Amino acid sequence: MTIIGEDLSVGRDLFVPELIWVPTGGGYRAVSRTDDPEAWLAAVAADEPVVTQVDDGATSPGQLGERSSSSSSQPSLVAAMLDAAHVAPGMRVLEIGTGTGWTAALLSDRLGSDAVTTVEVDPALAEQARSALGRAGFHPMVVTGDGAAGHPPNAPYDLVLATCAVGRVPYAWTEQTKPGGQILTPWGTEYHNGALARLTVAENGVASGHFDPVILAFMRLRAQRGAVCPWDGDGPGTPEMTRTRLSSSQVYDLIAAPGAFAVGLRMPRCHKVVDEDNLIVRLHDQDSGSWARCEVTPGATSHPVAQHGPRRLWDEVEQARGWWTAQGKPDLGRFGLTVTADDQRVWLGQPTDTVA
């Protein structure tokens, strides 16, 4: 069986640990390379992410994990990220989110280990990555610490490459990047996690640039990770029942990029959950206790909507879609992000046209 990722110069099977976690009904179950080598190899060989830790390491094999907390990213996404980074000899790179160490190995193979610094917040994962990198013959600096702080001692960097998503780009990354250097990071809102920001750092310390027209999703930087929504399904309270006249395809705009990205910019503090098997869209705002649910029937002219709480989340999401439509349904590449020492803002078209 071919290991996907070997065309990336270093196979990821060298970095995936002996114990992985696979999704199953109600959570994640552990799969051991020793006990079930075929299942382990099939997972590692697939062009899919492989979950390598659940619940920040608190769940033991034999128990069901609730939340993935570290993974080996989908190989095609790793390749896309490295292509987008335009990594070239002579560059010094700071990677945020070491994980298994595979991306650090790929960077080290291209640039040399001395040019790569990688930061991992979880001590156990950092140690596993150091060991795996050493066995593969790579020796980048693996730092155990909060990736939001970067690693000033090795700065400045030509490139800061995050392999975890953020909702706010830490200004420390800008401070540690050379003028003219770049920050490449997955970026998202609570509503939608799936854009790649490419920022160039100017002499005045401002980082700005467009989002790449690449659809991707990475786990959040742990310092910015939100709490798991406490509601299994709908929230508390008796909802108001209405119907939306959005078509099935128009509802799809709300849940898939680029529409979902644009809608998320207009929907602060709103978490989206999509039950694809049953075609149900759920929206939650934990701060206010507001929630909404829309059940989609393919081909129907309207769909039932339940809403409860001080925010009418479904009304808001329809208005946000209306705004995106009025702008001509722009794709990801028309949006951009500017980061300063005091703030960050998303814009459409030009940096002066602020959206959020």
Provide keyphrases for this structure.
single chain, 356 residues, Rossmann fold, Double Stranded RNA Binding Domain, 3 domains, alpha+beta, 8 helices
SSE diagram, text form:
Elements lengths: L18 E6 L2 E6 L4 H9 L4 E5 L13 E5 L2 H11 L7 E4 L5 H10 L4 E5 L2 H13 L5 E4 L12 E6 L8 H5 L1 E12 L4 E9 L5 E6 L27 E5 L3 H8 L3 H7 L5 E5 L4 E6 L4 E6 L7 E6 L4 H14 L8 E5 L4 E5 L8
Parallel strand pairs: 5-6, 5-8, 6-7, 8-9
Antiparallel strand pairs: 1-2, 3-4, 9-10, 10-11, 11-17, 12-16, 13-14, 14-15, 15-16, 17-18
CATH domain class name of the largest domain: Alpha Beta
Uncertain residue segments = 1-6
The general outline is: globular
> What portion of residues is helical?
10-25%
The CATH architecture category of the largest domain equals 3-Layer(aba) Sandwich
Q: Helix- and strand-based class?
A: alpha+beta
Q: What string gives the helices and strands in order?
A: EEHEEHEHEHEEHEEEEHHEEEEHEE
